[in-house]
Specification:
Length: 198
């Protein structure tokens, strides 16, 4: 069953999340429902705060994006040895970011219908626990690294909008107010701020 995704304006999206204990009750069921929610919303990443859980937990599927791209486009988005990944990240910490950056369009399931160009490091090294709670340290680049950084930010209470220049943010204010008010319908279950006030 899909979980409702919190819309822009919810306080949970601005909270720094808590570490997930190794034997957190219902963790596997939560992860499974998050995957169902992610695919039901046709997304490539989802973080626990987006489903109203203040946990350092997020999912990334860059493999689907890799397979959707034409061969000639892949080299601009993916490192040569990267065919995408499908991974669960628990208690993640980015330990290194490359000086090299790149700009690309990002969107967010919590901010339906809006996209913006965001500059991020091309490569990151991240420590995390996988779904089996095995510790990992891996380096990712390109679109995979971008997706990981976007979802990692959610666990820090950061949205991609925070990287935009003030004028660009100002131009989006009217649309953001409509999202907060529940006036922008999504093609997946959402929980708007207005739902909790009524």
């Amino acid at each position: 069953m899909q979980l409702p995704i919190l819309a822009y304006g919810h306080a949970m999206l601005r909270q720094k999340t808590q570490e997930v204990p190794a034997h957190y009750p219902g963790l596997d069921a939560l992860i499974e429902r998050m995957w169902i929610t992610l695919y039901g919303a046709n997304g490539c990443g989802l973080a626990a705060p987006q489903v109203n859980q203040p946990l350092r937990l997020f999912l990334v599927d860059s493999q689907s994006t890799y397979h959707q791209l034409a061969d000639k486009d892949r080299q601009g988005y993916f490192a040569p040895d990267d065919t995408g990944l499908v991974e669960t990240f628990i208690n993640a910490t980015i330990v290194e970011r490359s000086a090299e950056t790149w700009r690309d369009t990002e969107g967010c399931l919590s901010i339906p219908t809006l996209t913006a160009t965001v500059e991020r490091p091309w490569e990151i090294t991240i420590e995390y626990f996988d779904r089996a709670f095995q510790k990992q340290q891996k380096t990712f680049a390109g679109a995979t690294a971008r997706m990981i950084q976007h979802e990692y930010d959610h666990t820090e209470g950061i949205l991609y909008l925070d990287y935009l220049k003030p004028l660009k943010k100002q131009l989006l204010q009217n649309k953001l107010r409509k999202i907060t008010a529940g006036q922008v319908p999504a093609k997946y279950p959402m929980q708007y701020v207005s739902d909790t006030l009524s």
